[in-house]
Design brief:
The protein is an alpha+beta fold. About 60% of the residues lie in helices and about 15% in strands. The protein is built from 14 helices and twelve strands. The strands form three sheets. The chain has a five-stranded antiparallel β-sheet with strand order 2-1-5-4-3. The protein has a five-stranded mixed β-sheet with strand order 7-9-10-12-11. A two-stranded antiparallel sheet has the order 6-8. Strand 1 (about 240-245) and strand 2 (about 250-255) form a beta hairpin. Helix 3 (about 85-100) packs antiparallel against helix 4 (about 105-185). The chain is rod-shaped, with a radius of gyration of 66 Å. It starts with a helix and ends with a strand. The structure holds adenosine-5'-diphosphate (ADP). It is found in: Membrane. GO terms for molecular function: ATP binding. It is a multi-pass membrane protein. Pfam families: HAMP (PF00672), HATPase_c (PF02518), HisKA (PF00512), PAS (PF00989).
């Protein structure tokens, strides 16, 4: 039965019971009141009239008003005939009274009147008794039925009080437990309510929902598992080392390459705090350092490999949920680069000897003892000399570069006067400055000119800066070499008033092989890159300030 029907039937039943109880009560009280009223009007009043008539009879025949009194009460009695035989007795009383009026001194009339009144009185007293009995029985019956109805109502009310909360609460409790289970992702939970009402329908609907959620969860889980194993396969197939960390830096996954590099097994470190592992693992310590895009040289699997560390941030809805450390295997590039450096070093080294011999032959050609040369030949010899000088410069730069790239910069640091280096470099570029009528000025703003440096390399750098300054200056201008102190460093600047450099190229100017577009340079674009390596190897810094069209200032600082 539906809950609605149950409630309707229950409340309807209560309504009917209340109605019956009310009707029964009202009818019983009405009956009682009617019976009492009847006794009062039908019989009690007759007794009063009769009593009045008896009193009036006492005063007859002397008191004439007693006739009237008797007459009035008799008339009232004649109008209040209610009992069987009362009419006859009243008529007899009338007849006797009429005779008394005619013969007031006849005592038999008095006796007969009294007897008639007595009969009427008896009849009414009996009626009162009878009616009282009826009222009593009506009251008893009302009490009985009211008690019966009251008892039934009490039993029903008690039953409802005991059972009704359970009827509502039991299924609600079962539903609440089911919903809690769903909230806890326990989709296999079902509600078992064997009720054919709204709660039963609700439980069925709930079970269908739980089944659907269960199916969805399982299909989703299968999908997620499939995706997970696919990603795991991809990660494990990669040649790069990959380590996944959550937002609290606990290790989530690590692929085979990273396992080999770290010398650790996945099952031993999964879920562990990466910093704890770093305590006993140098490589992990380096991986956790905040130096993205750094190159790492790792010895694993009996060979040296090079990796580029890249830390990627994993985020969800703009919230960082972890990191992936990618160790890109750049060993093949390294090997190729090494081969290139070796090749350059060998070629430039091998070229130096024939170029030197060409230069020597040219010097011999110019010697008058060998023979005279005409002007055209002289021009040709000069041009070959220029080219071989340039070739020598290029091979020298390439050799320096191979030194730099292999990390083999041999430094011989010793205290030396920067002024000696400045003079040496000025002399070296004197000829090319003169060719462009450029004056080289020196501004020395310090007395402490001692610096701890590699003389040859520092001179090489200064010559390179001066050569560039002259190359990119206009004719008849000047180039200034400034020597000054800055903090604990000696700063040497080469200032020109030449073409200058556009701001967008300033951060690339020290890159290898870089030349500004439309540069008049016939060089390799290596000079500044090598200069930077040489200065930094000595613990110094190198920099540039420039303004396009106005000139440039290249400077380096060395610890003094
Ligand atoms: P290069 O052999 O081309 O001179 P460098 O490394 O010495 O190689 O210089 C790189 C580039 O920097 C040059 O090609 C030139 O464009 C720019 N450059 C260097 N010095 C100056 C300077 N003093 N004024 C303007 N541009 C310069």
């Amino acid at each position: 039965m539906k809950l609605k029907t149950k409630l309707t039937v229950g409340i309807g039943f209560l309504f009917i019971v209340i109605l019956v109880f009310g009707i029964l009560g009202i009818t019983s009280i009405y009956k009682l009141s009617t019976n009492t009223n009847k006794i009062l009007t039908n019989n009690y009043e007759t007794l009063v009239y009769n009593n009045n008539m008896l009193k009036a009879l006492e005063e007859l025949p002397d008191n004439k008003t007693a006739y009237t009194e008797f007459e009035n009460n008799l008339a009232k009695q004649e109008n209040n005939i209610t009992e069987y035989g009362e009419d006859e007795a009243t008529k007899l009383l009338r007849k006797n009274f009429e005779e008394l009026k005619l013969q007031p001194n006849d005592s038999s009339n008095y006796r007969e009147i009294r007897q008639a009144i007595q009969r009427i009185n008896n009849m009414n007293q009996n009626a009162i008794m009878r009616k009282n009995d009826i009222a009593q029985s009506t009251a008893s019956s009302a009490i009985f039925w009211l008690t019966v109805v009251f008892t039934i109502l009490t039993i029903i009310a008690l039953t409802l009080t005991v059972n009704f909360p359970d009827i509502i609460a039991t299924p609600i409790k079962a539903l609440a437990e089911g919903i809690t289970a769903i909230a806890n992702k326990n989709y296999s939970n079902r509600i078992h309510l064997k009720q054919d009402d709204e709660f039963g329908d609700l439980a069925n609907a709930f079970n269908i929902m739980a089944e659907k959620l269960d199916e969805y969860e399982h299909s989703n889980l299968a999908k997620i598992k499939f995706e997970k194993s696919r990603i795991e396969t991809i990660i494990n197939q990669m040649k790069d080392g990959i380590i996944g960390l959550d937002e609290r830096k606990h290790i989530l996954f690590i692929n085979a390459v990273a396992e080999k590099m770290l010398g650790l097994k996945e099952q031993d470190i999964i879920g562990k705090y990466a910093a704890d592992i770093a305590l006993t693992n140098d490589l992990m310590r380096r991986l956790l350092q905040n130096d993205n895009h750094t190159e790492l040289k790792i010895y694993a699997d009996n060979k040296e490999s090079y990796f580029n560390k890249d830390v990627l941030t994993v985020s969800n809805d703009a919230q960082v949920i972890g990191n992936v450390i990618v160790l890109r295997n750049i060993t093949p590039f390294h090997e190729l680069n090494e081969a290139k450096t070796n090749f350059i070093a060998t070629v430039s080294h091998e070229l130096k000897t024939p170029i030197a011999s060409i230069k020597m032959s040219l010097d011999l050609l110019e010697n008058k003892q060998i023979g005279n040369i005409n002007d055209d030949q002289k021009q040709l010899i000069d041009s070959i000399k220029d080219d071989s000088n340039r070739l020598l410069k290029i091979t020298g730069e390439l050799l320096n570069l191979s030194q730099v790239e292999t990390g083999n910069i041999q430094l011989s640091l010793q205290p030396c006067s920067i002024l000696e280096i400045v003079d040496y470099a000025t002399n070296a570029v004197k000829m090319s400055a003169e060719q462009k009528k450029i004056t080289i000025l020196q501004e020395v703003a310090t007395t402490n000119v001692l610096v701890k440096a590699d003389k040859d390399k520092t001179a090489w750098v200064l010559i390179n800066l001066l050569t560039n300054a002259i190359k990119y200056s206009y004719e008849q201008s000047s180039v200034t070499i400034r020597v000054e102190h800055e903090s604990n460093n000696l700063k040497i600047s080469v200032v020109d008033k030449g073409v200058g450099i556009a701001p967008k190229y300033l951060d690339k100017i020290f890159d290898r092989y870089f030349k500004t577009p439309n540069s008049i340079s016939t060089g390799t674009g290596l000079g500044l890159a090598i200069s930077k390596e040489f200065i930094e190897a000595q613990g110094g810094i190198i920099g540039v300030k420039s303004s396009l069209g106005k000139g440039s200032e290249f400077y380096f600082m060395l610890p003094s």
